[in-house]
Amino acid sequence: MLMPILLALLMLGVNLALLSAGMAGFSRWLAWREHHGIHTHSFVSRMLLMYVVLLMLLLATLVQVANWAAIYQGLDEFEDFTTAFYFSAVSFATLGYGDLVLSKPWRLLGPIEAINGSLMLGLFASALYETLQKMRGAR
């Protein structure tokens, strides 16, 4: 039981480090735009900014799901990466279909990945909120 918890903590650490770096870069980019007078006054420029932000958040999600899938694949939990990625996406999104399950020694990884996914929702909401606040300030 200790090994799955240690592996999960390692994965959480890696994912949080990647996401923290991405969020810091994102925040710096927004500040750079503001410092250089790049404002989003028009509807189209606001829409494009939100599109970029949402695309980056989706990419961050897919990277984290792929990280977890790589662990499952490395543990030989699934026959191929596609199946591991599917299981990971279902777990990360906290859907938990139950059509695929991890073996008994590693089954604790699924719920921990779901916790990882839930934490990311809060961080993503904060990124969207910061973007909206910056757009409101640009009026």
Helix and strand succession?
A: HHHH
Give the C-level CATH assignment.
Answer: Mainly Alpha
Mean pLDDT: 88
| Annotation field: number of helices | 4
Largest sheet: none
Task: Please explain how this structure is put together.
With 139 residues, the chain is an all-alpha fold. It has one domain: Helix Hairpins (Orthogonal Bundle), CATH 1.10.287. It is built from four helices and no strands. Helix 2 packs antiparallel against helix 4. The longest helix is centred in the N-terminal third of the chain and has 34 residues.
Structure, briefly:
The chain has helices spanning about 1-35, 45-75, 80-90, 110-135. It has about 140 residues and is an all-alpha fold.
Keywords:
mainly alpha, 139 residues, 0% strand, Helix Hairpins, elongated, single chain
Question: How is this fold's topology laid out?
Answer:
Elements: H1 2-35, H2 43-74, H3 81-92, H4 109-137
